[in-house]
Write a structure and sequence with these properties.
This protein has about 325 residues and is mainly beta. It contains 1 helix and 23 strands. It has a 4-stranded antiparallel beta sheet with strand order 2-3-4-5, with no helix packed on it. About 45% of the residues are buried. The site of (2R,3S,4R,5S)-2-(hydroxymethyl)piperidine-3,4,5-triol (DGJ) has 9 residues, from strand 6 and strand 14.
Length: about 325
């Protein structure tokens, strides 16, 4: 009996047996070992058959952990990508909101993140690391302020033409600065624009739907949730629309971290991941997955659901 169970789990993990699955929102998320998933402020990337969930860990000197799944429901722990021991500069650091993209030219996975010294948020730097293998420890490159700008909450976006962009909260979180990356994705090449100066936005995440780019962000209220807003543009360089409210006034008690594009055999759907932070105890923070739908080319729809059913193969989320 035990052997049959193990075989079924292996078939599910390798994607051979895949019936889709249901996520229950509001509780703790466990990996396939039965351990609590520690991957906050996360980013996602699809490599082969696997979706990777890469996020903040903060336990036992680990900064960034990596989980993978074929169905976006069952997550297998694959290892720690960045720890206090990865580089001398990280000995005294805090890392938030890691995001990873793949560079087709160099064959490297490149991670961008928010760097601080422990709980002091005044360094306000971006940091960069890379790896040849998404599941293996990353090589830390550096932390810096892009074009001398402060850089806190951030996201990374790779476009269909291979160009990659970094977007981060600048000027004490008053502005959002958009940068194009160099060809190797290891540095910023250009400060393209500053979005909504004085708008006080953070927790940005970008996606492309049809011919439009969408940017979702939260307001700035520390660890407490607030109203998510979105804007869209035909070119990532702008002009961007005004910011509009979406979801309820606390974003269903979450702060955005990433929206996964799920390209299936039948359709392309979008899966929102928000952090449900515990302001009193970071380690009690959990996650909420919700479908993000579109009612027309420029109107995303975002509603609360207790349960989310995902068929990643077909690209159907409801
Ligand atoms: C909200 C940010 O979005 C988080 O990533 C984190 O930086 C907290 N603020 C810190 O207060």
């Amino acid at each position: 009996m035990k052997h049959i169970l193990v075989a079924v789990v292996l078939l599910i993990q390798t994607g051979i047996l895949q019936a889709g699955g249901t996520i229950k929102n509001g509780g703790v998320f466990y990996d396939t070992r039965g351990e609590v998933i520690n991957a906050h402020g996360a980013g996602f990337i699809k490599v082969g058959n696997y979706y990777y969930w890469i996020g903040e860990n903060r336990k036992n000197g680990v900064f960034v952990s990596c989980y993978r799944s074929t169905d976006l429901v069952n997550w297998e722990f694959r290892g720690d990508l960045l720890t206090r021991e990865s580089h001398p500069e990280l000995q005294n650091a805090n890392i938030e909101r890691p995001k990873v993209v793949y560079n087709d030219k160099t064959g490297k996975f490149v991670m961008w993140m928010h760097f601080e010294f422990r709980r002091d948020y005044s360094a306000a730097r971006a940091a960069v690391a890379w790896s040849d293998d998404i599941e293996k420890p990353f090589t830390y490159v550096k932390s810096f302020r892009p074009f001398e700008n402060m850089s806190r909450d951030c996201t990374l976006f790779k476009d269909t033409d291979g160009k990659a962009y970094f977007l981060s909260a600048a000027r004490e979180n008053y502005d959002l600065a958009l940068y194009e990356l160099t060809d190797d994705y290891l540095d910023t090449r250009e400060h393209i624009t500053t979005l909504w100066p004085g708008g006080h936005r953070e927790a940005p995440t970008l996606l492309k739907h049809g011919k439009y780019y969408f940017l979702f962000t939260s307001g700035c209220t520390g660890w407490n949730p607030n109203q998510m807003k979105y804007a869209y543009a035909e070119s990532i360089r702008g002009p961007w629309s005004e910011l509009k409210n979406i979801g309820d006034e606390t974003t269903f008690r979450t702060q955005p971290t990433y929206i996964v594009t799920v390209q299936g055999s039948e359709k392309t759907s979008y899966l929102y991941l928000g952090d449900r932070w515990d302001p009193k105890n970071y380690f009690n923070s959990t996650y909420i997955f919700l479908p993000l739908k579109f009612s027309d080319a420029v109107t995303p729809v975002f509603e609360w659901q207790e349960e989310v059913t995902i068929d990643a193969k077909k690209g159907i989320i409801h």
